[in-house]
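Support request, please re-run this one:
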Amino acid sequence: MQQAVAAAQSLELIGMPEARLSIAQAIVFVCESPKSNSIVLAVDGAFAEAEKTIDEPVPIHLRDTSYKGAKQLGHGAGYKYPHDYPNHEVEQNTCRLQLKDMFTMFRQIWALNRESGRRMSEKAEFRLKNTKE
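Re-run finished. Output below.
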């Protein structure tokens, strides 16, 4: 997305024919990028799930603690601040129970996309090493 926006801004601010290189770079980037519909499927799934999910209260440890009386209500009790833990990961319920499976699916999709990005980076490094000057 950033490549496409930069190319559009280049065209708008610099104009042709100078912007043609930015546009060409964006085209090549988009053409060589791995394609996946996993994000679209995940977002569609989230909206569908939200439509059929009954309202459940926010878990008590995630409730707002910024006002007087929140502590007496138990808000924030037991909250684990992720940045206090290795890799900023902590085991705690961070969503409504009905949506837990959906968030697990999102995490799996995120991991797949991260792996796809790593492979793309390795591919680019290989091309750079094997490009003749």
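The two ends are 29 Å apart (CA to CA). Residues 100-129 form the longest helix (30 residues).
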